[in-house]
Specification:
Structural class: alpha+beta
Radius of gyration: 42 Å
CATH architecture of the largest domain: 2-Layer Sandwich
Number of helices: 11
CATH superfamily of the largest domain: Histidine kinase-like ATPase, C-terminal domain
Order of helices and strands: HEEHHEEEHEEHEHEEEHHHEHEEHEE
Strand content: 25-35%
Largest sheet: 6 strands, antiparallel
Strand order of the largest sheet: 7-6-11-10-9-8
C-alpha cells in the first residue's frame, strides 16, 4: 500500500486529491489532465467528473463520509482522439477526533490494464463461440439422435438433425414441445426411470433402456436410450441419446422364436422319438424277464436291473422334453405351468412357494411370450433358492386393463449380499431382456417387509394361452429345467 507521502509526491503516477465535507478540493498533488492546480482548488471535485458519472460518484463520496468505510469505483473519461481513458477512484476517509472530516481521493490511470482485460474477454468469447460451433457441428454429424429436455416440464430445448429425422420432423420443429408423446414407456418403467434420474446426482450412471417411440406420421419404432441428468444455468436438464434398434430387435425376436421352435422340435423328438423307443425297449425287456422267470434263469435279476435303468432314462428324457417346452396350451397354459413349477420347487427345496392367479380377462399371450414369463419366474425362483435363504415365496399373476402383472416376493435377506445381477452374473440381465422382449419392464427391489420383490408388467397380446390353474402337483415341469 502506498503512503500518503508517496501519493502526494508530484512525480507519483497517481493523482491525489483532498476534499472537504462539501466535496471541494483543498489539495491536489499535480496537474490533472489539462486542469492545473489553480483551476481545481476550491471547486467541487464533481465538476471534473463526466456528467453521466457524477450522481453515482457523489453517492459514493457521501457514503464514505457517513460511514467512514473506504470505497472505490472505476470511471471512463473521453479523450480528444475519441478513445476512452479508464481511471480507478479509491476513496479513503480522513478522521479527526473520531469524526470523518474530509476525504482523500486517489485516482489511477488503468487504461492499459482495462484494454488488456477487454482483449482477454473478447478472446475468451471468441474461444467460447468456436467451442459452441464445434459442439454444434459434432451434434449435427452424430449418427445418434440427441435431445435436451427440461426435467420439470419435459419440454424439448435442443435436438440434433439425426433426432429430427428419426422422428420425421423438420429442423427446430420440436423445440418447445413436450417429449412425452414421442416416448412410449410402460408406467412401471417410466416411474422407475424418472425416480432414478431425480434421485441421482449429475454423475449418476443410468443404464440404457429400450422403449417404443412414435414418429410424426404415427408409425412406431424401437429405440435404445441413455438419459443423463445435467445442470445448465441453474436448471435441471435431461440429455437423451437414442439409437433406432428396430431392425436389431426384429432380428433378435426372430432368433429367439427360431430357438424356441427348435427347442420345441427337440423336445417333441425326445418325447415322441427317444422316449417311445426307450418305452419299447422296456416292454421288450419285460417280456424277456418273464420268459427267464419261467425258465428259472438267474439272468432274470440282471434284466430287471436293466429295466430299472431304462425306466430312469425314460423319466429323464421326458423331463428334458418338458424343460425345453414348459408352457403348452395342451397342458393347461402358463398358469398351470407356473402352478406346477411352484409345487415342484416346494417339494424339492423345502421352501413354501405359493402361486396366485387373478385374471379379469383371458390371458392373451402367445406361447413364445408365455415361455418368456415362465423363464422369468423360473430364474427368480432359482435366485431365491441360491441367494436369499427365504422360507416363503409368493408368485402372483394378474391381468389389469390389458396388461399382465407378475410379482415374485420372498422373505429372504434382500440386498444384504450382492444381488444376482452383480458383475459377473447374468440372471437379472436375462430377466430384464425377456421383459423387454414382451414390451414391458422388470424391477428388482427390496420388499416392504424385507426380502426381495421382482415385478414385471407387459401388455397382453391377441392370442389366448390361458388354461385352468392346476390344483395338484404335476411332475411334468421342473424348476431346474434349462432355460434358453
Amino acid at each position: 500500500m502506498k503512503s500518503i507521502r508517496q501519493l502526494a509526491a508530484p512525480e507519483a503516477p497517481d493523482w491525489l486529491f483532498l476534499v472537504d465535507e462539501s466535496l471541494r478540493v483543498r489539495f491536489m498533488n499535480r496537474q490533472f489532465g489539462s486542469y492545473r492546480s489553480e483551476d481545481v482548488m476550491g471547486r467541487s471535485l464533481l465538476d471534473f467528473i463526466p456528467q453521466a458519472d457524477r450522481a453515482r460518484l457523489e453517492e459514493l463520496y457521501r457514503r464514505v463520509l457517513a460511514t467512514g468505510e473506504p470505497a472505490q469505483s472505476e470511471l471512463r473519461f473521453p479523450n480528444l482522439n475519441n478513445t476512452l481513458s479508464h481511471h480507478e477512484h479509491r476513496v479513503m476517509p480522513v478522521v479527526d477526533g473520531g469524526v470523518v472530516r474530509s476525504l482523500t481521493v486517489a485516482v489511477t490511470d488503468i487504461t492499459e490494464r482495462a484494454r488488456a482485460e477487454s482483449a482477454l474477454r473478447e478472446s475468451q468469447m471468441m474461444l467460447q463461440q468456436d467451442t459452441l460451433r464445434t459442439q454444434a457441428r459434432i451434434l449435427e454429424t452424430m449418427r445418434e439422435g440427441v435431445v435436451l429436455i427440461d426435467s420439470t416440464t419435459h419440454l424439448i430445448t435442443l435436438t440434433n438433425a439425426t433426432f429430427d429425422k428419426m422422428f420425421g420432423y423438420g429442423a427446430l420443429e420440436l423445440l418447445g414441445r413436450s417429449i412425452d408423446p414421442l416416448f412410449s414407456m410402460p408406467a412401471l418403467q417410466r416411474k422407475r426411470f424418472e425416480r432414478t434420474l431425480r434421485d441421482g446426482s449429475e454423475t449418476v450412471e443410468v443404464m440404457p433402456v429400450e422403449f417404443e417411440c412414435s414418429r410424426k406420421d404415427g408409425s412406431r419404432f424401437v429405440a435404445t436410450c441413455v438419459i443423463t441428468p445435467l445442470r445448465i444455468s441453474e436448471s435441471e436438464r435431461w440429455l437423451a441419446v437414442l439409437n433406432d434398434v428396430t431392425e436389431r430387435k426384429r432380428l433378435e425376436r426372430e432368433i429367439i422364436e427360431i430357438a424356441n421352435r427348435e427347442q420345441q422340435r427337440i423336445g417333441s423328438d425326445l418325447h415322441d422319438g427317444l422316449g417311445q423307443d426307450l418305452t419299447g425297449i422296456a416292454l421288450m425287456l419285460r417280456g424277456v424277464s418273464a420268459q427267464l422267470g419261467k425258465e428259472g434263469s438267474a439272468a432274470r435279476l440282471d434284466v430287471e436291473d436293466v429295466i430299472g435303468l431304462v425306466n430312469n432314462a425314460i423319466e429323464s428324457t421326458r423331463a428334458l422334453a418338458r424343460g425345453l417346452s414348459p408352457v403348452s396350451g395342451e397342458r393347461g397354459g402358463l398358469a398351470a405351468a407356473l402352478q406346477t413349477l411352484a409345487a415342484r420347487a416346494s417339494e424339492r427345496y423345502g421352501v413354501r412357494v405359493e402361486f396366485n392367479a387373478n385374471f379379469d380377462e383371458p390371458l392373451r399371450l402367445s406361447e413364445t411370450s408365455a415361455t418368456h414369463v415362465y423363464r422369468i419366474v423360473q430364474e427368480a425362483l432359482t435366485n431365491v433358492i441360491r441367494h436369499s435363504r427365504a422360507t416363503d415365496v409368493t408368485i402372483s399373476l394378474d391381468t389389469v386393463s390389458g396388461e399382465l402383472h407378475l410379482r415374485v416376493d420372498d422373505n429372504g435377506r434382500g440386498f444384504e449380499q450382492p444381488p444376482p445381477d452383480s458383475p459377473g452374473g447374468l440372471g437379472l440381465k436375462i430377466m430384464r431382456y425377456r421383459a423387454q422382449m414382451l414390451g414391458g419392464d422388470l424391477v428388482l427391489e427390496s420388499g416392504p417387509n424385507g426380502g426381495t420383490s421382482v415385478r414385471c408388467s407387459c401388455p397382453l397380446e391377441g392370442s389366448t394361452l390361458a388354461g385352468p390353474v392346476a390344483t395338484e402337483p404335476d411332475s411334468r415341469s421342473d424348476p431346474q429345467s434349462p432355460s434358453p
